[in-house]
């Protein structure tokens, strides 16, 4: 049985939103809101609707308890958790929590780090991080929950004793489960209420208590964190029948803040959006009714519908166009084939669509279009798509090198940033000077002719350097070489800055990023599967009669299957139709393990080299895979080079063949490679 929760004092968290009113400018005898206007209308009139509260939701009063002082030991544990997560990004956070609690307080972080470096497999035991791309696609972002601990999510941090007690009391109050079950689920979720809630809901649905109670009461369990049935959320009635969600204190400021951010604030946002939408529709209908009563309707110059002035917008030439015509034009431009017809790319605005005798060359200002389409969520998404397409076209026209997010339209200029302190280059130091003095002196004595030639060459180059054109040429290529070297040292991790995306990807393979990322992992996994299958098929034999696979361990090459089928192990021929042992060579040979000089039949006891067969099958499978995937990996030179070097390293070739391949592989480096080598060797970058 769940233990009874102590009654907690009510903590009022009022709404933070304010109702906005729409319509024309208020007359002296006109009500201040659409709801009051409807309340004084005759019930039999043409405009009757459900009464909507015109009282604004009060701003959120932060009546939460004062933040309790954080324990010093708890702060040290969380700081150590962040440090270990940065040092070992491939290990799950629960491993660090276990190790930090198992060691003493003195030099705890250093001891845990050394233990992981020395005996990582013993402590981790397979608990490495794995990339869950499904979660990334569902969430749309790659981020940790807000908190003061950076890369470690809030749910993974060490929790205080007051938070654990408050979460346990709340779970016992909300779920009719045994206390031991609740404690076990909370311990597995690190006492995170948001993380343990789905598991507790699933367990409650399977319990007999909930089945019996729901049979008589008809109560349905809410699967998500919803304010309608939460035990700590109450609805405070306001004037005109409106209700505001309020939060009761759980006794723990940390849990109260979590419930406020996950339940109260999202609920208030939904209330505000629903209330604004309702008030807007009522205000629009009221305004249209008043204008129609006063004969003030205006015709749209595109579809010629009679509308109020607030439902129209105008181009720069004064043509009035209604909202529906604006929407249809934008949809055709964004999703259809009317981009060039309806959008002025130079101004980034909508062309005038008025059906006049002469074509109007004016445009509708962007601020008017956005103001007209700012109330409906569908219209906001249409504006967002328009902005994305305008941005894409602008980036294409700019001709700049871009880095793109593979999951959305976000792009950045591929420009390397050089801080001011790193623009003054210094030459590298090559160790103590006395060591190189005798070596340099010996080389100068031995190679005097070469030194003179080098001196003359450098004198000529110095003379050319004094000339302005050659100096600019050298400086330009030196800077280009520095940029290439610095770019090659950059990380491949790319974070999208689009607020609707925020996903992390790889600049090389354009896939989702994980803490341990392998480029073209799916292709390499397919290569491994194909190679392993080819190697196994090269060794084993399969009976064509019953499809039984087997491998010979010893004996002769005449194999008999359990179904009675007989075959030769060397050439896989069917020898069950009276051929038998006559299939094999019967000539005498003075030395064994030699080929017969009189016939070409298979040997009865001579076995083929399995290692050579397996290696040949492996190379053939890799070649077939490369021919198939070569077009997909053609732009990734690093992956192709890695695979080719791996194949050459695994293969066994003769000495002459290996030298020939090395000579064929070596190529004369181009001037960029030579420049990069010299700059990287001499200059500190």
UniProtKB/TrEMBL annotation:
Pathway: Protein modification; protein ubiquitination. Residues 296-591 form the RING-type domain. Signal peptide: none annotated. This is RING-type domain-containing protein. Keywords: Membrane, Metal-binding, Repeat, Transferase, Transmembrane, Transmembrane helix, Ubl conjugation pathway, Zinc, Zinc-finger. Residues 22-54 are annotated as: Disordered. The chain crosses the membrane at residues 435-466. GO terms for molecular function: transferase activity; zinc ion binding. PROSITE patterns: TRIAD. It comes from Blumeria hordei. SUPFAM superfamilies: RING/U-box (SSF57850). InterPro entries: LUBAC_E3_Ligases, Rcat_RBR_RNF216, RING-HC_RBR_RNF216, TRIAD_supradom, UBA_RNF216. Residues 36-46 have a biased composition (Polar residues).
């Amino acid at each position: 049985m769940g233990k009874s929760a102590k009654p907690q004092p009510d903590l009022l968290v009022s709404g933070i939103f304010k109702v906005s009113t729409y319509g024309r400018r208020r007359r002296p005898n006109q009500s201040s809101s659409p709801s009051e206007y409807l309340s004084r209308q005759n019930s039999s009139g043409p405009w009757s609707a459900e009464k909507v509260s015109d009282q604004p939701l009060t701003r959120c009063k932060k009546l939460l308890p004062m933040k309790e002082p954080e324990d010093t030991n708890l702060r040290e544990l969380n700081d150590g958790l962040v440090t270990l997560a940065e040092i070992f990004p491939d290990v799950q956070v629960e491993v660090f929590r276990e190790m930090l609690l198992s060691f003493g307080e003195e030099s705890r972080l250093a001891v845990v780090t050394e233990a992981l470096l020395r005996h990582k497999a013993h402590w981790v035991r397979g608990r490495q991080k794995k990339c869950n791309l499904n979660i990334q696609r569902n969430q749309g972002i790659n981020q940790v929950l807000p908190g003061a601990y950076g890369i470690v999510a809030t749910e993974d941090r060490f929790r205080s004793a007051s938070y654990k007690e408050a979460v346990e009391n709340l779970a016992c109050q909300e779920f009719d489960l045994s206390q031991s079950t609740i404690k076990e689920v909370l311990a597995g979720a690190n006492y995170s209420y948001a993380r343990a809630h789905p598991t507790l809901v699933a367990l409650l649905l399977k319990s007999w208590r909930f089945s019996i109670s729901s049979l008589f009461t008809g109560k349905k369990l809410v699967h998500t964190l919803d304010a309608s049935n939460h035990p700590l959320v109450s609805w405070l009635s306001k004037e005109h029948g409106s209700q505001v969600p309020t939060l009761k204190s759980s006794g723990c400021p940390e849990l109260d803040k979590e419930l406020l951010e996950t339940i109260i604030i999202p609920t208030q946002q939904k209330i505000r959006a629903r209330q604004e939408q309702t008030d807007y529709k009522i205000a629009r209908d009221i305004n249209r009714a008043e204008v129609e009563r006063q004969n003030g309707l205006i015709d749209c110059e595109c579809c010629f519908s009679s509308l109020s002035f607030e439902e129209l917008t105008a181009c720069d030439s004064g043509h009035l166009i209604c909202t529906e015509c604006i929407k249809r034009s934008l949809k055709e431009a964004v999703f259809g084939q009317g981009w060039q017809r309806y959008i002025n790319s130079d101004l980034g605005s909508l062309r005038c669509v008025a059906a006049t005798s002469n074509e109007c060359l004016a445009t509708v200002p962007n601020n008017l279009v956005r103001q007209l389409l700012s109330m409906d969520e569908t219209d906001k998404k249409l504006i967002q798509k328009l902005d994305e397409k305008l941005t894409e076209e602008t980036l294409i026209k700019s001709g700049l090198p871009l880095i793109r997010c593979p999951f959305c339209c976000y792009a950045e200029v591929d420009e390397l940033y050089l801080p001011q302190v790193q623009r003054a280059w210094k030459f590298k130091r090559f160790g103590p000077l006395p060591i190189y003095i005798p070596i340099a002196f010996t080389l100068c004595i031995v190679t005097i002719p070469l030194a003179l030639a080098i001196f003359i060459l450098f004198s000529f180059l110095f003379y050319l350097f004094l000339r302005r054109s050659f100096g600019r040429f050298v400086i330009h290529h030196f800077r280009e070489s520095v940029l290439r070297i610095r770019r090659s040292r950059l990380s491949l991790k790319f974070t999208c800055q689009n607020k609707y995306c925020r996903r992390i990807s790889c600049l090389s393979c354009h896939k989702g990023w994980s803490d341990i990322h392998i480029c073209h992992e799916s292709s390499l996994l397919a290569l491994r599967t194909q190679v392993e299958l080819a190697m196994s098929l090269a060794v084993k034999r399969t009976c064509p009669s019953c499809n039984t696979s087997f491998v010979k361990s010893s004996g002769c090459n005449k194999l008999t299957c359990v179904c009675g089928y007989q075959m030769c192990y060397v050439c896989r021929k069917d020898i069950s139709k009276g051929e038998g042992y006559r299939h094999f060579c019967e000539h005498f040979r003075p030395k064994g393990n030699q080929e017969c000089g009189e016939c070409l039949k298979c040997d009865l006891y001579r076995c083929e080299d399995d290692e050579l067969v397996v290696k040949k099958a492996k190379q053939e499978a890799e070649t077939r895979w490369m021919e198939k995937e070569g077009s997909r990996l053609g732009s990734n030179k690093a992956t192709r080079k890695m695979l080719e070097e791996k194949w050459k390293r695994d293969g066994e070739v003769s000495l002459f063949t290996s030298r020939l391949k090395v000579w064929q592989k070596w190529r004369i480096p181009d001037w960029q490679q030579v420049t990069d080598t010299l700059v990287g060797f001499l200059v500190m970058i």
